[in-house]
Design goal:
The structure holds 2 protein chains of 2 kinds. By secondary structure, chain A is an alpha/beta fold. Chain A contains 16 helices and 6 strands. Chain A folds into 2 domains: 127 residues, Periplasmic binding protein-like II (D-Maltodextrin-Binding Protein, domain 2, 3-Layer(aba) Sandwich), CATH 3.40.190.10; 226 residues, no CATH class. Chain A has a 4-stranded mixed sheet. In chain A, strands 5-6 form a two-stranded antiparallel ribbon. The longest helix of chain A is centred in the middle third of the chain and has 33 residues. The chains are: A alpha/beta, B alpha/beta.
């Protein structure tokens, strides 16, 4: 018979031990700090990099586009200066290079050498075929990850080509400008009709609500589970290696010990999520996004968090009990971590098409359900009720199996010394009971 | 009533037979010593008594209960290799171990105060375990074992690695526990401790019981064929002496097992060297242990002899 009093004693001790540890306090502060820095650093770093001048050689085989392109570049560069004269973005210094009788490849090699010597950042060819059916720009650089320049060239040369084509049709310049004018795309939600028959206007889509909120919810789930469940591995291994487990097993059954540990870390994960969610809510309310997450989403978040903790907590406990040293434990952990990381590999397609078959199926795989269903529930269109219910049932069944199987592995492994178990041996322990 | 009753217990690990058809009864209020060479099955037997391991065959009753209803809360267990949370304070650790035994906080507090004072550890109560010396840690481990005032105390090698002062303190504590009514079972490699402290001694060898009885009963079974001698020549005086079957050399003293008449042996010895001490005695537990646990000895045959 299970002594829940003893389970509670273990859980309370594990919980207190975890939340009083320096690692927990540092973790609480570190996670938001890292999230903040990861948002802020690229912006500052990007701005710093983008303040550079980039010299670009232009080989204009059309003989018509360079003067216009140079003019637009001057306008662009002027726009990169603040009123006080400080620079706020990248500037492109164009210089025309004539073939002057050189073979195209010779010219390309010569310009490539100038790029290598950092005299130029890149060079671009505007081929004669630009005005034909399949126009192509050729952009050469050794910095392919820098995007602003090729994007600018693509856009500007594209417009110049259109303008040039229209000019040849003798269209009035004013009309021509109007024809190539930029267009604004308004992203809107769906309309609803109220009970009194009036139509409520569609809300303008907000990237904070449609992208940032789901991503934050998903990342919170992921980070809380990994940061609270994975220490179980070390805790069980330490107790095993220092023979504390044998002392404990003189007082309570292996299942009671494991259940206590699991409940303790579930408590820690709930405290952590309460801290993060309330912090995020306060931040959201301050910026006018208090309604970005509903109470129902929060409830499901906690439910899926508990189920994920049961699955991965049991797994880490079982591995901690089966391993006899850190190296073996890490080897056993690798496939489990891949399993745990699996939602991270596919969250982007799910974000882009939350109603796709792939997104639905992936979010029903129990190892990924807590993370992906949390993501989908914050996206539009949200998963249907049957998907949420099925995800809950499958994940609950899986977590029950993992607790049961983890308990069997723990019972045998915790007293084993000398050699770490393999997955095959662990499976034998599960079957043997 | 027997505090512990083991009946026909067998335990195997894979193809290794760790405990073979073992039966044993430990009277309530007694001190029972488990002896046996390394790997003979002592710890496995103790773990089965604690219900940490389950026997493949046979039954174990502790305080009249068995299996999943085992009397865990009434049994204190000190494993061979000590297990303490290094980062926990002494007081917090003892509270935790007491709570796991189902003891009330007030009772734990009373016992903790008593034992910390008794073992001179009161000032260490708020220190972390990692700050303690090895001897102090072992004392804390003993307190953790008895914090819930168990009726049965099982100690696996409680005195190993202790200096004589700390070993004495622990020995006195064990005797005190018995005075308070606990039944004590402990395993040891120290035959002197077993002789001095145990009401009954049990020896296990290759998984089988080979000795079980009081020291008198065991020594009587192994006869009066032993003499203790102290001579000027020491161990060398015994070389080539007829009738000497085995010698346990303690440096200044030799324990000699004879196959001949002790008086005739003494007469011959006096001719060879000055004799300072000569005592016809029963074999020591150490000698009996060594006789039984010789390499290649058959536990089955010894078990028959020992009956």
């Amino acid at each position: 018979m299970i002594s829940w009093g003893k389970v509670w004693t273990v859980a309370a001790t594990e919980f207190q031990h975890a939340i009083r540890s320096k690692a927990f306090i540092i973790g609480i502060l570190l996670m938001p700090a890292l999230a903040g820095l990861s948002a802020v650093i690229p912006k500052f770093a990007g701005d710093e990099v983008d303040k550079l001048e980039r010299h670009v050689a232009v080989v204009d085989e059309t003989g018509r586009l360079y003067p216009m392109l140079s003019l637009v570049a001057d306008q662009w560069n002027a726009a990169q200066l603040n009123k006080d004269g400080s620079v706020k973005g990248p500037r492109f210094r164009l210089q025309e290079v004539k073939a002057a009788g050189r073979q195209p490849d010779d010219l390309r090699v010569e310009l490539s050498d100038r790029v290598r010597e950092k005299e130029l950042f890149a060079f671009v060819e505007l081929p004669k075929a630009l005005f034909e059916d399949a126009p192509r720009l050729r952009y050469y650089t050794d910095s392919p990850t820098f995007q602003p320049l090729p994007r600018w060239l693509d856009e500007v040369v594209g417009r110049l080509v259109i303008a040039e084509r229209l000019r040849n049709t003798n269209v009035d310049p004013q009309t021509m400008l109007a024809l190539v004018r930029d267009m604004q795309l308004d992203r809107l939600g769906l309309l609803t009709r109220a009970g009194d028959g009036r139509v409520a206007p569609a809300k303008v889509s907000d990237p904070i609500r449609s992208f940032v909120t789901p991503m934050v919810m998903m990342m919170l789930m992921f980070l809380i589970v990994i940061s609270t469940a994975s220490p179980l591995l070390n805790s069980v291994m330490e107790e095993k290696m220092t023979r504390i487990s044998e002392v404990l097993l003189g007082s309570l059954s292996p299942f009671e010990l494991m259940a206590g540990k699991l409940l303790g870390v579930i408590g820690v994960s709930i405290v952590l999520s309460a801290l993060y969610l309330s912090g995020a809510y306060t931040f959201a309310v301050y910026h006018g996004y208090g309604d970005a997450v509903t109470a129902v989403q929060i409830v499901w978040f906690v439910v899926y968090l508990i189920l994920a903790m049961m699955i991965y907590g049991s797994l880490f406990i079982a591995i901690g009990a089966a391993a006899t040293d850190l190296k073996d434990a890490q080897a056993l952990m690798t496939p489990c971590m891949l399993l745990f990381m699996s939602p991270v590999f596919i969250w982007m397609p799910v974000l882009r098409a939350p109603g796709s078959t792939m997104a639905i199926v992936a979010s029903l795989v129990p190892f990924a359900t807590p993370v992906l269903m949390t993501l989908r529930m914050a996206l539009s269109p949200a998963p249907t009720l049957w998907q949420i219910a099925l995800g809950f049932v499958l994940t609950t069944a899986t977590s029950a199996f993992f607790v049961w199987a983890g308990g069997r592995v723990f019972r045998v492994g915790i007293l084993m010394q000398g050699k770490s178990a393999t997955f095959a041996e662990m499976w034998r322990w599960v079957r043997a009971g | 009533m027997a505090a512990i009753d083991i009946s026909g217990v067998t335990k195997t690990f894979g193809s290794h037979l760790a405990v073979d058809d073992l039966s044993l009864s430990v009277d309530e209020g007694s001190i029972y010593g488990f002896i046996g060479p390394n790997g003979s099955g002592k710890t496995t037997t103790l773990r089965m008594i604690m219900n940490i391991l389950l026997p493949d065959r046979g039954e174990i009753h502790v305080l009249g209960r068995s299996g999943s209803a085992a009397a865990r809360d009434d049994v204190g267990y000190l494993p061979e290799e000590r297990g303490l949370y290094r980062k926990m304070s002494v007081g917090r650790l003892l509270e935790y171990y007491g709570a796991l035994k189902g003891a009330k906080a007030a009772d734990v507090e009373r016992e903790m105060t008593f034992w910390l004072d008794r073992l001179d550890l009161a000032k260490w109560r708020h220190h972390k375990i990692e700050a303690l010396s090895k001897g102090m840690s072992q004392k804390v481990q003993l307190i953790a074992t008895v914090i819930a005032r168990p009726r049965v105390v099982i100690l696996d090698e409680p005195f190993s690695g202790l200096d004589p002062v700390n070993a004495n303190v622990l020995r006195e504590s064990v005797l005190e526990l018995r005075q308070r009514g606990s039944t004590i079972v402990f395993s040891t490699h120290d035959m002197g401790v077993a002789e001095e402290m145990c009401d009954r001694i049990f020896m296990i060898f290759k998984g089988r019981k080979v000795l079980d009885g009081t020291l008198d009963e065991i020594q009587a079974r192994y006869g009066h064929d032993t003499v203790r001698v102290r001579t000027a020549a020491g161990r060398a005086a015994l070389d080539g002496e007829p009738g000497v079957e085995a010698v346990s050399d303690y440096g200044n003293l030799q324990e000699v097992r004879l196959t001949t008449d002790p008086q005739a042996f003494l007469a011959r010895l006096i001719e060879r060297t000055p004799v300072f001490h000569f005592e016809v005695t029963r074999p020591s537990l150490h000698d009996i242990f060594v006789r039984i646990a010789q390499p290649g000895a058959d536990a089955g045959q010894i078990a028959e002899v020992g009956r």
